[in-house]
Specification:
This protein is mainly α and 223 residues long. The chain has 7 helices and no strands.
């Protein structure tokens, strides 16, 4: 049944991340919860399902794909540091192209921030998280979970692009063109906010390192 639990967790995770986001389904849910309520509930359930999926992968039978070596943890920790910084820099920032943004009506194409490099910074952070854990885990169950989540993150942007194009109409292409005209190298508009977000990313990284052995029973510090 241990493989069955992983399959059930995986199936539930995929269904939850596809069905409620379909416009007819989402509109019905939002009619009851409101847009903000939908986002809150969806985020909480997503985190719970992700936790279940990770715990189920840890309980699955161990089948080694490649032997573990200390460099894997070192590299994974480096990738996770970048992921934490990226997450801190993009969460709650205006981003009309993707999810995870806030106050999207305040987005200024002349100062796009990370959106100049990727329309979906949260998906990129998820992909980095998946890559880091593929590196650190050489067994079949974890490989299936983290590789699948990485692929989902890398290709999920196409799904979001289609949805945003429907929502914004011609404005989507115009906004994208204006963002792409901005220089690749630029000074941040509000440097104090950048420093605070950087510090939040470092704090998140330290917190994850501390909680990882407590929650998952595996220490990233195993060198």
């Amino acid at each position: 049944m241990v493989w069955g639990e992983l399959a059930l967790a995986f199936g539930t995770f995929i269904v939850f991340h596809s069905v409620p986001l379909r416009p007819p389904v989402r509109s019905r849910i939002e009619a009851v919860t409101g847009s903000t309520g939908f986002t809150i509930v969806y985020s909480i359930v997503s985190i719970v399902l992700l936790g279940w999926l990770l715990l189920a992968s840890g309980r699955a039978p161990y089948f080694e794909l490649w032997p573990w070596a200390p460099w894997q943890n070192r590299l994974a920790m480096a990738v996770m540091f970048v992921m934490c910084l990226l997450l801190a820099l993009c969460v709650g920032r205006p981003n009309p192209f993707s999810f995870g943004g806030r106050n999207n009506n305040r987005f200024v194409a002349a100062h796009p921030g990370l959106v100049r490099y990727t329309r979906h910074p949260l998906l990129l952070a998820l992909a980095l998280w998946g890559v880091a854990h593929v590196i650190a885990n050489g067994d079949l169950a974890h490989f299936l979970v983290f590789a699948s989540l990485t692929i989902f993150a890398l290709f999920g942007g196409r799904i979001i692009d289609r949805r945003k194009k429907r929502e914004l109409g011609e404005g989507w292409a115009q906004l994208k063109a204006e963002v792409n005209r901005q220089p690749l190298l630029f000074l941040p508009e509000v440097r104090r906010a950048l420093v605070l977000r950087f510090m939040a990313g470092v704090a998140l990284y330290v917190t994850l390192l501390y909680l990882h052995p407590i929650v998952f029973g595996v220490s990233p510090w195993t060198f």
